[in-house]
Design brief:
The protein is α/β, with parallel strands linked by helices and 254 residues long. The protein has helices at 2-21, 26-33, 37-49, 71-75, 79-90, 105-112, 126-132, 157-163, 188-199, 237-246; strands at residues 23-25, 54-56, 59-61, 98-101, 119-123, 138-142, 146-148, 153-155, 168-172, 177-179, 182-185, 201-207, 219-222, 229-232, 249-252.
């Protein structure tokens, strides 16, 4: 009985990876799942026949393009996990610190539950600015720049130039993918802002639900050696191995 169940779980991970990345190589799937190449080939054939992906000579591609979702669409996904992660992230903030809050639904949840701890909040996220504006014990600065409606964020040369004026104690950086190579996102301009923030932060925390593990989005943000802590709701073997190899502290919320 355990064999078929394990096979279906493995195939679901393959489908999730293909949908997240758009394309995966056979060798990547072998490494990610820890099974033999013939086993993966059999899985790909089965999933191809179900029309859940398209098998290619060296791996598989998605049957439809991987499109970035709007902030509104993402807000309802993995909601319970994101709330747990956000609560754990708030415990990382000490009174009087300067804090960068990135764009993204999990970071938005961090902002919405912040205590009045005499914090200086820096952000490029319109939703974060709205969540903290006018609240006692929370001072905020919203970066200038070009509005990116899909992410509800400010990006571009003005945002990057303004970031050079600041240093923060802790930065909470959102991402849509995590692999052994690091964290990634769907948009180049978002990645540029995140990279600039990481360079200006004393400590980098990546709040990330486990659905992002094993996914590589369009553009790399940074390698795992630039991240201090990843906070999630569930640890996978892959994520634990990647973090251990790069000295990243991996914490489970709750």
């Amino acid at each position: 009985m355990s064999g078929p169940v394990f096979a279906e779980e493995r195939r679901q991970r393959i489908v999730d990876a293909v949908r997240a990345r758009g394309r995966v190589r056979l060798s990547d799937l072998v490494e990610m799942l820890g099974v033999t190449e013939p086993t993966i080939r059999k899985d790909l054939s089965e999933l191809h026949n179900r029309r859940l992906l398209r098998r290619t000579h060296g791996g598989a591609i998605a049957v439809e393009s991987h499109l970035e979702q709007t902030l509104h669409d993402r807000s309802g996904q993995h909601r319970d996990a994101k709330l747990k992660i956000a609560q754990a992230c708030r415990a990382e903030i000490a009174r009087g610190e300067s804090v960068y809050l990135d764009s993204g639904t999990t970071v938005q949840a961090i902002a919405e539950g912040l205590e009045p701890l005499d914090l200086n909040i820096l952000t490029n996220a319109l939703g974060v600015a709205h969540a903290v504006a006018g609240r006692e014990g929370l001072r905020h600065t919203l970066l200038g720049g070009t509005v990116r409606p899909l992410g509800g964020s400010l990006v571009g040369p003005v945002a990057l130039e303004t970031l050079g004026r600041f240093t923060v104690d802790v930065a909470f950086i959102g991402a849509s993918g995590l692999t052994a190579d690091g964290i990634s996102v769907a948009d180049v301009t978002e990645a540029q802002v995140k990279q600039a923030v990481i360079d200006r932060a004393r400590r980098v925390v990546a709040p990330m639900d486990s659905s992002k593990f094993g996914a590589a989005d369009f553009v790399a943000v940074c390698g795992l050696d630039r991240v201090d802590v990843i906070i999630t709701e569930r640890v996978t073997e892959d994520a634990a191995r990647w973090c251990d190899a790069h000295g990243v502290e991996l914490r489970v919320a709750g």
